[in-house]
């Protein structure tokens, strides 16, 4: 089973839950798809042993062939080409998505493409755990491409069970992660902000027809009801992790509370049982 651990908002404890699920079942493949800020390996206590570069095409202009018509700048919907009404346009390689449109519309064919590094897929093993980590290069905007390449690498490893730590939010990066999942485990907190972003995630998973279930983390930090959302979207709350100072301190030290908090570990094991009861 491929489980996507996601949350509408950051800071709900999504990565703590992902790490705990992996630590409770080390045979699952741990995949960090939060490529703008990957930190699952830290909570697992694993260090990478291999890194593969992720590249994609980036547009370049042959200044000797350019006739300064500005067509390319008008065509690029990503705003990657700056042209001030004369001279040779300037391409911002960090913003280029490698779509190839500018080279197709350039009248003299002055635009060509070169591969540029946009990130890495890192991998490693520790304590029986295999993990993969997508990591976006600083300054690059090609998040979805790095996520796609990380998943492609995962597919070559032959593991039937995955825990994917997804990016926060409800935009393209999380949709690009969810599309590889059999179910989405949505981590939220009982606060107004948590409820609002959870609703967005439930709408997204419903639109993508991905079965979902909830984990409420930090119970006691707020009392905003979430049960009505469960009824509306036909989903269930599978586990509740109480807010605790010790769990917060673990996170601050870069450790998983699964290793130090017996109650947290027990709730994680129970969560696995609930996932298997409902989704296997
Ligand atoms: S390849 Fe696409 S994104 Fe890159 S500069 Fe050309 S039109 Fe813009
Ligand atoms: S479309 Fe081609 S020729 Fe026109 S400004 Fe861009 S690079 Fe130069």
Automatic annotation (TrEMBL):
A Pfam family annotated for this UniProt entry: Fer4
Domain 4Fe-4S ferredoxin-type intervals: 57-86, 87-116
GO molecular function annotation: iron-sulfur cluster binding; metal ion binding
InterPro entries: 4Fe4S_Fe-S-bd, 4Fe4S_Fe_S_CS, CobQ/CobB/MinD/ParA_Nub-bd_dom, P-loop_NTPase
Stored Gene3D superfamilies: 3.30.70.20, P-loop containing nucleotide triphosphate hydrolases (3.40.50.300)
Keywords: Iron, Iron-sulfur, Metal-binding
Coiled-coil regions listed: none
Protein's name according to its UniProt entry: MinD superfamily P-loop ATPase
